[in-house]
Design goal:
The chain is of the alpha/beta class. The chain is built from 15 helices and 22 strands. The termini are far apart.
C-alpha cells in the first residue's frame, strides 16, 4: 500500500539539514542517508551522514556557548524553555504528523507523544529556578559550610527512534534548565522530528551552540564514540539497548564522565485473582500494545493467576481482535507498522518459538504482507512457559504472552528472574499485597492497577541491567548538575567592639 504524508501547516519545519551552532548545515563530506516511511516504504527524504569531524564541530560549538549560557539566571533559562514548550504546543499537529510519518505510530499516539514531550520543557522550566543548595552545620568551630549547584558542562545525548520527540526533550529539558549545553545524536530512523524541534528552539531564542543536533545512520557508532571519548563532553545520557549501553560505558571510562543510561526492559505484568478484570484488561492493552509494543516499559511477560486466567485470556483477546492495523494517518487505525523488517523478523521468531514449545495462538501470529513489509498482526499467545524466548528476551513488538501462575511468591520470583529491571506492573485490590509486591519487585518503576506510568513529574529509570540515573521529576535536573561544597573559615570571631 502507498501512503503520502498530509501537508504540514508550516512546511519550514521539514528540514533536510541539521542544526549546529545556530545554523542549518550538511555533513562536511556531503554524504547523506535516506529515511523511509515504515508504513509505505516510500522515501521521506535525506539527512546529513555526519562523522567524527562533524561531531567534533558540534562539541566545539557547545563548549563555546557554555560560558555565556551558564551565566544566565535560572529564570532566564526557564523562560527559554517555556517559550520552546509553547512553540511545541502551537505546532503540535505538525510535530505529530512528522512522528507518524517517520516512526509509523498512529496519529492519536503521536499527538499524545507531542504533549508528553512538551511536558518535559514545561516541567524543567519550572525546576530551573529551584535547583537549591544547602546550608550545613559544620563540626569545626568557626567554619560555615554550604553547597551550590553548578551545571556539569557540555552534555552528549543519544536518543532512540521509538519516541522521536519525547526522548530528546526528556534529556535536553533538564540539561538546559541546569545551564548545560548539548550535542544530541538524533536516531537515524527518525531524524526529522528532532530537526523540527531544533527549528522551534531557534525560534524560542535559545542561543547558538546551546542545542546542537548530529545526524547519522551508517556512522552512528563513530558519532557515539566521538561523544564518549571527548574530554570536553562531561556527561552522556543514553536511551537504548543494554548491549550498546555497556559499550558506551566502556568508551566513557577513560574520561570519567557522568553517565545516565535508560536501557532494555522486560516488564512483568501481573494480574492477581482479586484484581478488577476489566481494569486489568484495559491496563494490559494500554501497556502491551502502545506503539505496537515498541516501548521500553511495555508489558513483555503477562503473568495471570490461574483463578482468573481463562476469563482474562478471553476478555483480553476480544479487545485485541478489535484492533485496526494500518497506516497511522488512516481514520480508525489503532496500530501502525513496526519500525523496519528486522523488527518484524524478531517478533515472528518469538511467536514461532512459543508455538513450537506448546504456546497456543489466540489472536494474530502472522505477518501482514498485504499492508507492507513492516506489519505484524497484534498477537496473543496463552500457555507460555519460562523456557520460551519471549520470557527472557525483550520482544519490542505486538506480542502478548500469557503465563499462568499459582502463588504470589512464585510470580515475584519469575518476575525478578530477568537480568533487567526497568518497569513492572500488577493488579490487585488487596492494599497489603500492593505494598508487599511493589517492594519485592526488582524494578525501577512500578505501576499498580495502571498500565501507563510515564509522567514528566515522575522519576523514570531502572535497576540491574536496565541502567542507572533518573529522568523527569525533581531528580532529572540533578543528573546534569554537580554539587560544590564551600567552607568559610574564621567565621567564629566575636563581634567587633564587644
Amino acid at each position: 500500500m502507498q501512503h503520502s504524508v498530509p501537508p504540514l501547516n508550516d512546511q519550514s519545519l521539514l528540514k533536510n539539514e541539521t542544526y549546529i551552532n545556530g545554523k542549518w548545515v550538511g555533513a562536511k563530506s556531503g554524504k547523506t542517508f535516506e529515511v523511509f516511511d515504515p508504513a509505505s516504504g516510500k522515501l521521506i527524504g535525506t539527512m546529513p551522514e555526519m562523522n567524527k569531524e562533524d561531531t567534533e564541530e558540534a562539541i566545539k560549538a557547545a563548549a563555546a556557548a557554555l560560558p555565556g549560557f551558564r551565566k544566565l539566571t535560572a529564570r532566564e533559562r526557564s523562560r527559554m524553555l517555556r517559550k520552546w514548550y509553547q512553540l511545541m504546543m502551537d505546532n503540535a499537529d505538525d510535530l505529530a504528523r512528522l512522528i507518524t510519518w517517520e516512526n509509523g505510530k498512529p496519529m492519536a499516539d503521536a499527538k499524545g507523544e507531542v504533549s508528553y514531550a512538551a511536558g518535559f520543557f514545561e516541567w524543567f522550566a519550572e525546576e530551573a529556578p529551584r535547583a537549591y543548595g544547602d546550608t550545613i552545620a559544620a563540626t569545626v568551630p568557626g567554619n560555615r559550610v554550604f553547597t551550590i549547584k553548578e551545571p556539569v558542562g557540555v552534555c552528549g545525548l543519544i536518543t532512540p527512534w521509538n519516541f522521536p520527540a519525547a526522548m530528546i526533550t526528556r534529556k535536553i529539558g533538564p540539561a538546559l534548565a541546569a545551564g548545560c549545553t548539548v550535542v544530541a545524536k538524533s536516531p537515524g530512523e527518525t531524524p526529522f522530528t528532532a530537526a523540527a524541534l531544533a527549528e522551534l528552539a531557534h525560534r524560542a531564542g535559545i542561543p547558538p551552540g546551546v542545542v546542537n543536533i548530529v545526524t547519522a545512520m551508517a556512522n552512528t557508532a563513530e558519532v557515539g564514540e566521538t561523544i564518549t571519548s571527548s574530554d570536553t563532553v562531561k556527561k552522556v545520557s543514553f536511551t537504548g539497548s543494554t548491549r550498546v549501553g555497556k559499550l558506551l560505558m566502556k568508551q566513557s571510562a577513560d574520561t570519567l564522565k557522568k553517565l545516565s543510561f535508560e536501557l532494555g526492559g522486560n516488564a512483568p505484568f501481573i494480574v492477581f485473582d482479586d484484581a478488577d478484570l476489566d481494569v486489568a484488561v484495559a491496563g494490559a492493552i494500554a501497556s502491551k500494545f502502545r506503539s505496537s509494543g515498541q516501548t521500553c516499559v511495555c508489558a513483555n511477560r503477562l503473568y495471570i493467576q490461574k483463578g482468573i486466567y481463562d476469563d482474562f485470556a478471553k476478555a483480553f483477546t476480544e479487545k485485541v481482535n478489535n484492533f485496526k492495523v494500518g497506516s497511522g494517518y488512516e481514520e480508525g487505525v489503532t496500530h501502525g507498522p513496526l519500525i523496519h523488517d528486522r523488527a518484524v523478523d524478531k517478533v515472528e521468531a518469538h511467536v514461532q518459538d512459543a508455538v513450537k514449545q506448546g504456546g497456543k495462538v489466540l489472536a494474530g501470529g502472522q505477518k501482514m504482507p498485504d499492508l507492507g513489509s513492516n506489519y505484524f498482526q497484534p498477537t496473543v499467545i496463552r500457555d507460555m512457559t519460562d523456557k520460551m524466548q519471549l520470557s527472557h528476551e525483550e520482544t519490542f513488538g505486538p506480542v502478548a504472552g500469557l503465563f499462568p501462575f499459582d502463588t504470589e511468591a512464585e510470580v515475584v520470583k519469575q518476575a525478578n528472574s530477568a537480568e533487567v529491571g526497568l518497569a513492572g506492573y500488577f493488579f490487585s485490590k488487596d492494599v497489603q499485597r500492593c505494598y508487599r509486591v511493589a517492594e519485592a519487585l526488582e524494578v525501577g518503576m512500578v505501576g499498580i492497577n495502571t498500565g501507563l506510568i510515564s509522567d514528566p513529574a515522575a522519576p523514570f529509570g531502572g535497576v540491574k541491567h536496565s541502567g542507572f540515573g533518573r529522568e523527569g521529576s525533581k531528580l532529572g535536573i540533578e543528573e546534569y548538575m554537580i554539587t560544590k561544597m564551600i567552607t568559610l573559615g574564621g567565621m567564629g570571631q566575636p563581634l567587633q567592639g564587644s
